[in-house]
Amino acid sequence: MVTKDEQLEELKEYCRRDRIEILKMLTRAGSGHPAGSLSCVEILEAIYSKMRYNPKNSYWEERDRFVLSKGHAAPALYVVLARRGYFDPENLNTLRKLGSILQGHPLPQSLEKRGTPGVEVPSGSLGQGLSQAIGIALALKQKGNNKSKVYVLCSDAEMEAGETWEAVMAASKYRLENLVVMVDNNKYQLDGKIEEIMPIEPLRGKWEAFGWNVYETGDGNNISEVIENLEKTQGAEGPSCIICHTKKGKGVSFIEENPVKYHGVVPTQEELERALIELGGDSQELKFKKDEKIKSKIINEPLLGTREAFGEAIGKMAEENASIIVITCDLAESTRVKEFGKKFPGRFFNLGIQEQNMMAVAGGLAGEGLTVFTTTFAIFFIRALEQIRQCIAIPNRNVKIIATHGGITVGPDGASHQTIEDIALMRSLPNMKVIVPADYYETKAVIRELPNIKGPVYVRLSRGKFPVIYDEKIDFKLGKLGVKRIFEFGEGEKKITIFACGLMVSIAKEAAKVLWEEHKKASRVINLSSIKPLPEEDLVRFAKESELIITAEEHSIIGGLGEAVSSFLSNLPSRPKIKKIGVEDQFGQSGESDELLEFYGLTKEKIIEAVLNN
Length: 614
What we know:
The protein has 614 residues and is of the alpha/beta class.
């Protein structure tokens, strides 16, 4: 018979081993979120020590449910699930790889064969897990299941999100005694200390004010203390919350000392070896070898980043234009406006995890005559679509929406962070203009021109770096083309015309070169960076001169560049055949950028094939 003390010692050993596996997984993957994964290990092990589950039947009806709301801590959850037999631990070596069951952010097993056994809901976009958990808890009551509990692990940064508090109120109203929330209160988020980005205290008082049973651990990395508080929730009337004060990067000295850096940066090989020694790793573990990065076969050098171009351009413009304001949501570093914030602190606002609030605030600022630049990842603007519509597009406010990390080339983070529908959504809004620059220099030209464009504009940028097409002399005028955006390959009365935007301009140029040199197919590539409005006169001319039109975009074929071109040309008395190349009607997945471009058919080979087969 195992004693309670023996069980605790075993769980402590699990936690040590978990941290070793987390760091090995992340270093092998080459990307991910180590600091936040390390902080919550004891919380996860404590929860699973109390949960009722059956790894051989992961959807056993009487199981307890677990929701990882802080989806970036997926590696910690995967290690715990593997230990408990949900899948072969060998799968841990495939984290964030193309086709892996261990995506960059969690997906349920039922999703397109890419999900993870034991995962209940998709997560990765902060602030949504608790709402999903409430749905599960309500469903259990509806089905008469009074045995199962729903456990949720939230980050402290999620306490900045409005949806979190909507969910807190709802759970209290419906007296969900089957719901237990654990808050990993490690005091940091991506851009820095929570108390500096968007203070959340008094946290306990807020939860109590909404009628929750609230408990608090002095040390959330002390598993016995976490278990003790979990036991207090048994038999509680109404929902319970346990605030766990943890250490971000717990167990590894250099990550604890610099938790902001290691929020989304994985250890190097040398750092990993140092960390394993600190964690008591054995000689076998120290022989670990990092996977080799895939060498790009699709995107040629030299490469420069479009988000870097934005950061540089906005800083220079602000020196001459005092009306420019920048707002971000805990992504100052990632969207390259951190330096702007340092240089112009009075004109820079970091609102934390509050995209809906950001867009409404931007509308208010613009209504007072200021030029407002809002910036976050493309995927996070989608959650604020109604605010964009109501507060910005309807009143035609002068708000410039700079969306970085657009498309599938976000890579290993997976479907939760890969935006393939944003152009379609923004195109559909009256008054909204949509621009997708092709490279670093065109991005700078676009940003410089934005203050001269009246009303809202959506600019889609990338996470990775694009091939250089232009130089500093390139300019940009909304709805205009100009000769520098037309690339001719070969001669002929009728040509193949390839309309492309963003990264696909470079890929289309490679395809056009091959089409002429190897197949004697004359073609032209059009950089259609102004998607709304389109350069309509040019489109009419090209349609008359073309035997076939190809559209190429790093976006869904539904509603994007291809449909914009098709819709406009459908008004002509006659037009050539149009073939759209883009992401088919499906979501993305984890993988390296080049792998994903090839998997989804966004390559020069697919463009060539489309031409030769049509």
